Amino acid sequence: MASKTFDSLRILNFRRFFLGALFSNLGTWIKNVAQSWLVLTVLTDNSSLALGYVTALQFVAIPVLSAYGGALADRFNKRNILLITQILLGIFAVVTYVLVATNMVELWHIYLIAFLEGVVVAFDAPARQVIISEIVPDELVPNAVGLSSMSFNGARLVGPAVAGVLIGLFDIALVLLLNAITFVFMFIALLALRVAEINVTPPVARKGAVLDGLRYIVRHADLLVLLVIVFFFGAFGLNFQIFNALMARQEFGLGPEYFGLLGTIMAVGAFGAALLSARRKRPRLKMVLGSVFLFSLFLILAGSAPTYLLYASLLIPCGFFALNVIIACNVAIQMGAEREYRGRVMAIYMAVFSIGSPLGSVIVGWVGNYWGARFSVMICGAFTLLCALGVLLYFVIWRGLRLHFKYEHYLLRLEAVWIYADSISGHSGQLAQDQRATLPSEN
Predict the structure, then answer these.
(1) Rounded CA gap, 374 and 379, in Å?
(2) What angle do CA 288, 232, 46 make, to 5 degrees?
(3) What's the DSSP call for residue 282?
(4) Percentages helix, strand, coil for the chain, rounded to the nearest 5?
(5) Residue 417 pLDDT > 60
């Protein structure tokens, strides 16, 4: 069992990348808690709307710039891109620490830094996603993506709790300093990669690269369906940085330690999902939709939880099913794209995800301000549920319309539906041959 789950770690380059990312992710979760608590308790009087703006600004530049980030990732060395982005993000972390430590910080500083971080992430995220497929062979990409998600959520197990305790014992500045230090580990890991063992993708031509990537997505309906799920899920399902802060502070009247603990508790479920995903070779659409359904129901239940303990307990299945959706979509989109398009395809994936995130975070903050934290959590659960129902209805109607036709030019349409319903892993060529053999002959 262990050999299958941790197969990718046998590769030295991935092992180094994994460890660097683990420390980097730890810093990210520490910073998220510190920043949220800074905005809620120091810079505002428990303003959920201000917290929503900060979250939105972190993502607002990504939809605009990530397509160009993906084009750069397909054209230039991804390791070099990541070295530059890590330096810039590290500088922002140091500036934030200095502002807070010297008591010079103002809300607009946090807004500006959040926006600038989003600009850099638009170029960092596509390169970070695609370099995994260059470090490990194609057959290990699903395993490596699962392990990377396990690293991210393993850090989330520890990061929020550590941040909450340190804020309670010391101050926010110390936590922000720890975040700045963690960038050193990722930088060292990137420098330590053996360049000769990286399977570098041949660069694409510069002219028209972004539009070519968009056309590629449009031609692949299976990728479009996944992007719809990612949009709604990113907009309304993944605002726990805001959900947990509002529920801990407004509904339960608790301090930063309890806010940080919520992130750790949720990560227990997410960590379990990451372990399972590392063993999964082919994500299926029915698994994705089932996870969205169950996530939505548990999120609605969490919003109505009368006590802190019950709310925290419901975050475990929320974390589990949320990560199931994220990893499955990530692997399916990455493996469904040809190697020379992966940077741009993953950039579009990040753009769609990021278009939803600022929209959702502002809505959550606004609803929380006027109707309270509970209603904002439950309404987001309802929206993600409607998304799953819409996708399911699309497939039911599509298949129902096509199954009654027996004309030759509808055969490929019917065949494609069978493929989408059976698997979204991107291995459509072999599936098409298998399905063609099983379709009834035309009379």
Answers:
(1) 9
(2) 120
(3) S
(4) 85, 0, 15
(5) no
Inter-axis angle of helices 308-336 and 342-371, to 10 degrees? 160
pTM, whole model, 2 decimals? 0.66
User: Which helix (H) or strand (E) element contains residue 419?
Assistant: helix 411-422
Helices (H), 221-341: 221-236, 240-246, 256-279, 285-303, 308-336
Q: Confirm if 302 and 318 have CB atoms less than 8 A apart.
A: yes
The mean pLDDT value for 361-388 works out to 81
| Both tokens assigned to 421 | 């319903």
Distance CA 144, CA 277 (A): 10
Instruction: Determine the Cα–Cα distance for residues 86 and 182; give it in Å rounded to an integer.
Output: 10
SS3 79: helix
Angle at 128 between CA 92 and CA 148, to 5 degrees: 105
Q: Which two tokens stand for residue 336?
A: 């469904």
- Rounded to whole angstroms, how far apart are CA atoms 250 and 40? 11
Distance CA 175, CA 260 (A): 12
The residue assigned the tokens 């419901």 is 314
Ramachandran quadrant class, 441 (left: phi over 0; alpha: psi -120 to 50; beta: rest):
beta
Rounded CA-CA distance 154/145 in Å is 14
Residue 103 banded pLDDT, cuts 50, 70, 90: very high
- Once rounded to an integer, what is the mean pLDDT over residues 214-223? 72
Cα 75 from Cα 91, distance rounded (Å): 26
Rounded to 5°, angle at Cα 249 from 244 and 252: 95
Calculate ∠ Cα 101-103-105, nearest 5°.
100
| Alpha carbons 419 and 313: distance in angstroms, whole number | 37
Strand, coil or helix: what is 442? Answer: coil
Query: Which tokens hold the place of 250?
Result: 């407004």
CB burial of 207-229 (b: ≥16 within 10 Å; e: otherwise) equals: eebbebbeebbeebebbebbbeb
